[in-house]
Structures are given as C-alpha cells and as structure tokens.
C-alpha cells in the first residue's frame, strides 16, 4: 500500500462500518409521536431502482504490445487528470523462496531503491521526492512490483527511475542494515496486531512448515539473507520476459512505445525457471491452534481452508457464493449472524484469495475474550450451513446485482483499469478476462453456486489469538480443544520453535558431552570460587537485602540512581531503581514477573518473566551458589585475557538449559565477571571491591553493561538473613 | 510489507491522516456549484464524467468534540445508530439497498465531523439521495438496537484502542497535550462512558445536530446540475430546519501550554514509538499553509529530514516523520518515530527534537521549499482523481478550514510560502514549552530517565 492509499483507506476505516439488516420484515411498533405519520412502516416508499446491471464493460482505449526483449506492455491513455501511473509486475511467487530465506523476495524488492549503477539510494529518493512523486518497490499479493506515480509532466523521470532500479540495482551491502531492520520491524509489528498474527498462524497451521506458503518471514530467515541471495533472486526472476508493464494516465500513446523501448529496451532477456506448482495440502480433520496473548482483551478468530486459483473455472460461482457467506460485508450471513443478530463483533468476513496458484479460503472475526468459543461456533456454523445448502435464490440475486452492478466502479481511473489488466496477466488469465467477468458472473445458476459451496468450503485450520487463561477452557467445553498452544512472541513456524527449544537442549548436551577433564576442572574451579565466597555462609543464605547508589547511562544521558535489591534465592527477587524521583520495581516471584511504577502493578509478558527467572538464577551476589545446585553442569573454558589480567573461565548450564560464563580472578578465585546472552544480545557484569558480610564476601561494585546502556552501582549496605519485609513481593 | 509499519501508525491514529492538499485551480474548479436550500442544507456539486460513478456524501457538523463530557464516544456510537433503521427503512436496510445497486457505503466519525458516504452507479442517484434524506430526521432509536450496537462499538474500541499499543500512545499524547479541550479524547471514546449512553441521550443528540441546517451534501461524479437540483429539492426540500446547534467546545478553549509535558508508558509491545505534539492554531489560520510546507520538509519521503536523520544517519528508528492534525479548533503538529526494542528511546527522542530545533534556528533551503510545494501540488492532483476521495476532502475541508474549495484554491497560497514564513511558524509553535511527548516502550526495558530540562529545542 502506498502512503496515499493508506490515507485513503484510512478515511474509510476511521469510523463505523454499518451493519447488515437483521432481515426480519419491518414489524415495527408505530413511532410514539403525537402526530402519527400516515406513511410510517411503509417499506414500499423505498424501492431500489430496477437497474438491470449491464454486463457490458467499456475499458476505454487500451493498447497491448510486447517489446523485443519480451516485456509485455499494457498502455491505458487517459487525459482527464494530469497524472501517470507506471506499474511493473514480476511473475514469481512464494515457491521461489528457500525455506530458510523466506523474505528474500521482499528484501530484494526493497533493496532495488537502495542504489543502482547510476544512482545512490539518496539520489533516488531526492529525485522522486522533489517532484512529489512516489516510487515503490515491494512484494504485493500478486508478486514483486515496482510502481511509480507522478504528475504527467514527470513521466520521463518515472520511466528513468523505474527502469534503472529494475535493470541496474547494485544491492549495496551498507544499505542492507536499514532494510533488514524494517523487515524485522514488520515481523515484530505482527505481534502487536493480533489480527495479522492470527492470519500468519492460520497459514502456518494449514500449509505446514515444509510449504513456503505456511512459512512466514521471521527474524531468523531475514538474518539468513545475505547479499548473494539478493543478487541471485534478482538475476533469476527479474527479467523482461518474466514481467508485465502497465502505463496509464495522461501521456501520448503514439510516443509511448518508443519511450518504453528507450528505457526498458536495455533490460536483457534471460532464461527464467518455470514456476513450480504445488498442490494444496490433503484434506483432513480441522486442526486447532491457540496462540496465547495474555494481555489481550479480545480474541481474533481465523478459519482457513483450500482456496481456488484466479483462473479456476469455478471462480465466478465461488465468489458469488462467498459474497453471500461473508464477502459482501453488509449483505452477508457472517455479518448478520455475528454482528447484527448477536453483537459479538464489529466485523466478520470471508474471502477467497485467488492468485496464480490456489490461495486459501479464510473467514475471520474478533470478539471479547469471554465470547470466543460461542463466536467461533457461529462462524463455523455459518460455513457449514453454506457448504451444506448453498446460497438462496435471493442471496445469489443480491450478490449478482452488487458484483455486476458495481463492476464499473472498479474502472474509474486509468490506473484502476491498468491494475485490473496487469493482475489478470500475472495470474495467467485470458486478455479479455476483465471484459467477460460480468458475463461470467451473470451466467452462474443457483445450482452452480450451491455446487461451489459444496466443493470449496472445507475449513482445515482454526486459529485463535487471545488470552489462553480464559479462552482455553471455553474451547475445551466447545469440543474445539487446541492441539497446541503457542505463546504469541514465539516463532510462528514449528521448525523455528523447535530450533529455539533445541538451542537450550544443545547447550545442555554440549556441556554434558564436554571432555571429562574439562568437567572435572570446572568443578574444581567452582569449589575454589565457593570457598573464596564463603562456602558455609553462602549455603545458609535465605534472603539478601542490598542498598546501593550509582549511575544509569543510556542514550548519551547519565542519571544518578538509587538501587535496592531484595532476594530470596530460588524463590523471588525485587529490584527497585529510583531515577529522578520515580521508582520502578521489577518483581519476580512464584514463577511470575510483574512491574510496578507509581503503585501500579503490571504483569510482565511471559518472555519477560522468563528473563527475570534467569536473572534470579544468575544474580551476581550468589551466582556461585546457583552453579552448585543439583542438575547444573559446569565445564572449564580456556582462560580469557582482559587487559593485563588472565582470568579463569567457567561455563555454567542450568537444569533448564540456560547458560552463562563466569570469569574468575585466578589470584582470589572471586567472580570477576558474569557474561550471558538474552535475545541475541550479550550482557556483562563486572564485579569488584569484595568485602565480607556475615561470613560471605560480596562485590561492592557491580557494573552491568548491555547494548546501549550501562548501570554502575556501589553497594553501601548488605543484609544477610535478616528477613525481608512482609510485603516485599506484594503487588 | 515494509509499509505496514507506517500503515499501522496512520490507521491507529486517524488524526495523523495528512489532510489537505494544494491543487491548482483547473477546469474542474470552474464547474463547482454551491447552493443552499431554504432549510439551510448546503450543497456542493462537482460534475465529473470520466466514469459512470457518483459519490454522495452527507457531512454533519458534529463530532467527538461536541459530545457531553461524560459521554465520550457517543458521536461515533450514534453514527452506528444511523444504520439501525428509520421511519420507512428497516434496520440496516440502507446499507443493503446500496449494496443491491452495486454501490458501497460507509461512514466515519472524527473530532469535528460525522460523514456518511455512498458511491453508486448514476442510475441509483435518485434512490441514494432519498435514503440519505430519510435519515436526516426520521431515525428510530430503540433500547434494543442501542444495546446491541453498544456491544458492536465496544468491540470496535477493543480492536482499535485496547489491543493496539500505538493507539494507546496516541491516546496518551492527546490526553497530555489537551487539558481542557475535548480533543483530549479521540472519537472512539471511553468504554465506561459508552456503557452509560441511553436512548434519551441519543435522541437529544440527534435533535441537536442532525438537522439540514447543520449538514453539507456533497455530490461528485457523473450527473448534471439540473437533474441533481431537482432530486435534492424533492428529497431534502421538505425537511424543516432545526434550531442552531450548540457548540460546547467553544467554551473549552485550551489554555496556553507553558512547559514541556512528558510521559513514559511501558507495555508488551514489539515495535515501540516515540510521539510528540506541538499545539498549532485552528484550521482557518493562515499559518496552516507554512506549517503544511514544514511538515513535508520534515517527513515527505525518504529524502525528508526526519527519515534521513533517524533511519539513515543515526539508524535508530525504522520509520520517522511528522504529521499535521488540522482541525476546526487548534490542533497539533505531530512528530514520531517507530523503533526496534533494542534501540534507545532517549536518543530517538533527542534526535526528533534536534531536527525541530534546526528548523527553528535555520531557514530551510530553497530546494527543500520547492520540493515541499511540489509534493503538496501532486497530492492535490491525486485527491481530485477519484470522485469519492474528492467529495470526502471537500467535506473535511469545509469544516477544518471553513473552506470547502481549498482543494482547488490552496495552490497559490502554498506557492507564496517563503523560507522565512516556515522559520517564523517553526519558531512560533515548535517550542519545547509547547510540546507534549510520549515514549512507549517494551515492558521490562529500562525506563529512560525523564528529560531534565527542555534540552536545546529553542536554540537560536
């Protein structure tokens, strides 16, 4: 979506979507008005005009030709507005993306603007922005596309820029970070948008992990894409004989062919691999997945099943049937049942995504979490009802009158016409598809639509994104028990979730498989550290209370802080940081984490909670105690040089598979540094100025350094086993 | 795909929709016709015969800011009720009728305005006007439909606000920037207050604001003036004028902001945001022209200052820019950046404010000025391309700028803007003491320390 179309769409979504009639005849009580309206309740005053929808389509002037290099051209001259729209679509779909590099098409498209043999990324932006035009390169529903929109006086610039980025991109390595961050941001953002997340999971559940259609782009696959992958993808698929160009708007059609030849002629024809065709997954019983989003107050519900190709002979009958089911929002059954009759939701819809290959049928809605299973049943019930009986005669007629009658609204501008024609071309439809489509709709009979319902409505996967705590029992009661429950921050694909879990097993395995000598030496080192710390004292620790002052540095700013820590090893911890008069507490107790600011407690999401659990385990004041707990594995690592000092190194792996490194001062055997990695980012804690308290020596200076921030504290006071205040861990 | 980032921001924060555009007066402008019915209904007609399409839109001059203070969200809820049946049209039949003639229909509620639009083939124009005229005064409000629609509207609120972190940041910003004026609350409203809306509330609201003398009918598309005048007289002529509607917000003038306001929010969010806003004057102030130019210089495309600074140079944000909230009453000049959780929000905020300080301290370059003007001109041309888009813009402009034909006339005013004008408005409005800022970050990230004193924002 371009920025402009976003704004246009915005206007439409800002407010309310009107509801559908409840369909009952108007048995309305007379309005309680003193002067009764003689026309009250008269429906016959409102009779829609009988407009026999015309199946004639006038596309206006359209020229089609092919350049010598194989580039197919659709030219749609229109002189009513001084604008031009150039669109180049490339024929390639998800099948072309390797499973471990999903997102390579998006990455390649986005990098087209980031430098060519003639222009730098900034020169490209400068030129298009200066004229108030738009140059987009991205992957849409029908594959990668480059679009340039501008006023007609800037036609040449559009031809120049679009051809340059398509033909001569250089994929500069130094520009890849920006695009990588933006792609990661779009992955992350899906987690903030439960509707999009549900959709991704539904595709994943239906197609499975081995099918690119079921494998969304992820942080891991984006990270795996290197420059060579971009160059290869571009070289393989971005060929003139594998692309369609549409130009529409206010231009001289006589001069256009020569102009296109000038700008796009140098694009070299190459051999393009045939796109593989992959069947839809075999039918089976419907699978159910629950995606737990503990803070959600609403559940997103998505049902998917096999869809159809754009070129499917059942296209027209299926679309008309789907209009009655959920495609014709205000006139559909789903809206009526879910919204108008039962007020479960703001919206409910269904759609058949039809492109070159069969897409999916999907139905979706959302509702307050308490109504999740009842609403799911309504949706499934309507799909089944339609599958079993098809639409009624009246529904089919309404679908036809809307889709045929309103067909002309899709061809208002030259760009509208060009878009319809280029999509048809990319999806392997005949050239006259746009013109014959209304006729195709008109000839559908009730029997056809009924057959389409029976053939094409087979839900195979149900995904619900919502708070599992309240949703899971409802689903169980409704006999829709999920076969799996997944945390919303976890990777969508099962293979990636396995990899993440595997990394922990791997750490355990590696530690266990270490040479016996390394393990032995590791244990010895740990014993020395324990002794240095005060073995007797530390074994008896039940609670610790620390007061400290220090400094927090982030973003080039330094702030003095007060720090107070309360620890009950193995059970809970609370850390209060006081900055500029504000106190923020992070508490982890009994397996759950929460945060407290200004007396307000907020539950932490499960991933954050888990990180706090690890913090409790690796607390620098008693990490050596943690390392001696049963089931923990230790091994000696090669010594580490830090400045002039050589430090002994020890790897510690918890029974859960969490791993950290301890660096020990070889002279004192005290822990000098704790190093661990969270979410791919390394944190190190430097410990110094050890002094004893209650027979245990504690580092009095702790410097914690992570990416972009640093916290330095000096501990003024340590209390051991004095008992923590009763409300320490209270919310 | 990448644009999702920006898309969500815009969708989440309707106020950010870049508003008006600056078209050159062209042939279309000369054909615009405006007239008024004896009952006060204003009509604006733009003929456009390029395709068999006509857009009919009714803009009522009532929005979130006109609601009673304890019923926030009622204007939007009422918009839903406009589809729930009237004296001669059963509930939701309006929408179904329009679908049946191949058209599409919808409505939206903003701070200042509630709009209803139908885009149909010309053969359905007569019928469409009849339907719109019917619900000006004949709506039927029952307990049953109100209770049912209340649930629907609350579900909409859950989706748009409660389960969208960015919307919560925008909501917080508005509550920070406005202490008195009802713009503090977006039109989506408050759940608790929606629970209390009664039939009687709705009836009063309807009688006050849904009157022909408080509405503008805009028709753009494939019809002619004579036909249209006849149809409008037939359907809207008989409706009686109502009393002059009350304007409660007029007494709720926002006091001048004297010092920086800031808030930090922490919640589970994967793509956090820093968003700030500076008070700017009402839409009819001439300062809105140089402010629009400035907005383009800061955020028009990847060559813009904010994108260049935060995304390309600092590499701290994935999207950065600004937007104008141009309203009937004084609005806001917004700045924002979306970033990955590892990034440092304090640094991002400092960079946004530093870019503001630069336009305050130095005049913009002639090239940037021309680029901004070209962008505004191109936007205007695009807005006029489609009947529905043009009709909506005319309706919004008629209220925000008190100038329905701004889309045809603003070009000359944008062209006249100088670098000195831009610097003057930057200096006047983009001061730290006039700023409110919200940092939304992932729960568990260390909170950035609140900024001590307004940094170097006002540097000369």
Low-pLDDT runs of 5+ residues of chain B are: 1-25, 448-460
Query: Structural class, judged by helices and strands of chain A?
Result: alpha+beta
Q: What kind of sheet is the major sheet of chain B?
A: 6 strands, mixed
The gyration radius over C-alpha positions of chain A equals 32 Å
Q: In angstroms, what separates the terminal alpha carbons of chain A?
A: 45 Å
Low-confidence stretches of chain A: 1-34
What's the shape of chain B? globular
Mean pLDDT of chain A: 88
> What is the multimeric organization of the chains shown?
heterodimer
How far apart lie the N and C ends of chain B? Answer: 41 Å
Protein architecture, described:
- The complex is a heterodimer of chains A (731) and B (460).
- Chain A is an alpha+beta fold and 731 residues long.
- In chain A, strands 18-17-16-15-14-13-25-24-23-22-21-20-19 form a 13-stranded antiparallel β-sheet. In chain A, strands 1-2-6-3-5-4 form a 6-stranded mixed β-sheet, sandwiched between helices. Chain A has a 6-stranded mixed β-sheet with strand order 9-10-8-11-7-12, sandwiched between helices.
- Chain A starts with a helix and ends in an 11-residue tail after the last strand.
- Chain B is globular, with a radius of gyration of 23 Å.
- At the A-B interface, helix 1, helix 3, strand 4, strand 5 and helix 5 of A face helix 1, helix 3, helix 4, strand 4 and strand 5 of B.
Present the secondary structure layout.
The complex is a heterodimer of chains A (731) and B (460).
Chain A (H helix, E strand, L loop, with lengths): L2 H12 L48 E4 L5 E6 L5 E8 L13 H8 L9 H10 L3 E7 L2 E9 L3 H13 L8 H17 L1 H14 L11 H5 L3 H11 L5 E7 L3 H12 L22 E6 L5 E9 L8 H13 L5 H9 L6 E7 L3 E11 L3 H18 L3 H13 L8 H13 L6 H10 L3 H11 L4 E6 L1 H10 L6 E4 L6 H19 L3 H18 L1 H5 L4 E11 L2 E12 L3 E8 L2 E8 L2 E6 L2 E4 L2 H12 L5 H5 L5 E10 L2 E9 L5 E6 L6 E8 L2 E13 L2 E11 L2 E12 L11
Parallel strand pairs in A: 2-6, 7-11, 7-12
Antiparallel strand pairs in A: 1-2, 3-5, 3-6, 4-5, 8-10, 8-11, 9-10, 13-14, 13-25, 14-15, 15-16, 16-17, 17-18, 19-20, 20-21, 21-22, 22-23, 23-24, 24-25
Chain B lengths: L3 H9 L14 H5 L1 E4 L5 E6 L6 E7 L13 H8 L11 H8 L3 E6 L4 E7 L4 H13 L5 H20 L2 H13 L13 H4 L4 H11 L5 E7 L3 H12 L24 E7 L5 E7 L8 H12 L5 H9 L5 E7 L6 E7 L6 H17 L4 H18 L3 H14 L5 H10 L3 H11 L5 E8 L18
Parallel strand pairs in B: 2-6, 7-11
Antiparallel strand pairs in B: 1-2, 3-5, 3-6, 4-5, 8-10, 8-11, 9-10
